[in-house]
Amino acid sequence: MRRADRLFEIIQLMRGARRVTARSLAGRLEVSERTIYRDVADLVASGVPIDGEAGFGYVLQDGYDLPPLMFTRDEIAALTAGARLIRAWGGIEMARGAEEALAKIDAILDDALRTRSRQLQVHAFGAQQSDETRAALDLIETAIEARHLIQFTYRDGAGLGTQRCVRPLGMWFWGKFWTFVGWCELRDDFRMFRVDRMTALNEGPAFKPRPGQSLRDFYARPDPGGREFSREREV
């Protein structure tokens, strides 16, 4: 659990309770009591009205609520433009998530910022993005997170097709097409693939990280995203 999520949960667990001990909070959140002590001290320092002390228990004062999420005008412009870009060029699930995010942002804004968001004249169109490519993007993104192999047929710039089994590591958007980088079992090396040239894509079993085959190792190479890999080096 991220620390920000844990702090939020501490406030939620204190809400409506008479007194909550550090031990009970630690048990619920699966952390040490020392961690709870530090978290509560940080919450108090940030202005959350918590009474009590270590060894005695904590009480959240009545009437306290989390402050509403606020954005600046520039942040609204960035979030709206980014969500529209993903809605146009992302995967099917990515696009759905972007649409839902835009609706949630719209729901919490005041009238002035809501008007700013709706009137933002920054748009993206994804007419060149096929449904097959959109579905592939979702599958690759899921496989990267879950550390699952992906298997597919790949056609290079000359139209030559090969069967690939790859450990997916990361994705990039280049303005008109997506690529992903991974450790290719066929070439026994890093390779970058254009997603729109992939067919018969399937998610395989889980893999365990190996030394020298991580995204960090890829970045450590000279010019990892430059000329060498932009041409996919399919040899």
What descriptive keywords fit this protein?
single chain; two-stranded antiparallel sheet; flat; alpha+beta; 9 helices; 235 residues; five-stranded antiparallel β-sheet; 43% helix
How would you describe the overall organization of this protein?
This protein is α+β, with helices and mostly antiparallel strands. The chain has 9 helices and 7 strands. The chain has helices at 3-14, 22-29, 33-45, 73-89, 92-108, 111-119, 131-146, 215-219, 227-230; strands spanning 50-53, 57-60, 148-155, 161-173, 178-184, 189-194, 198-206. It has a 5-stranded antiparallel β-sheet, with helices on one face. Strands 1-2 form a two-stranded antiparallel ribbon. Strand 1 and strand 2 form a beta hairpin. It is flat, with a radius of gyration of 24 Å.
* Series of H and E elements: HHHEEHHHHEEEEEHH
Residues in β-strands, percent: 15-25%
Helix vs. strand class = alpha+beta
Give a count of the beta strands, DSSP E runs of length 2 or more.
7
Low-confidence stretches: 226-235
Percentage of residues assigned to helices? 40-55%
The overall pLDDT, averaged over residues, is 83
Q: What does the largest sheet look like? A: 5 strands, antiparallel
Q: Spatial order of the strands in the main sheet?
A: 6-5-4-3-7
- Rg, Cα atoms, Å: 24 Å
Shape: flat
Count of alpha/pi helices: 9
| Cα separation of the termini | 43 Å
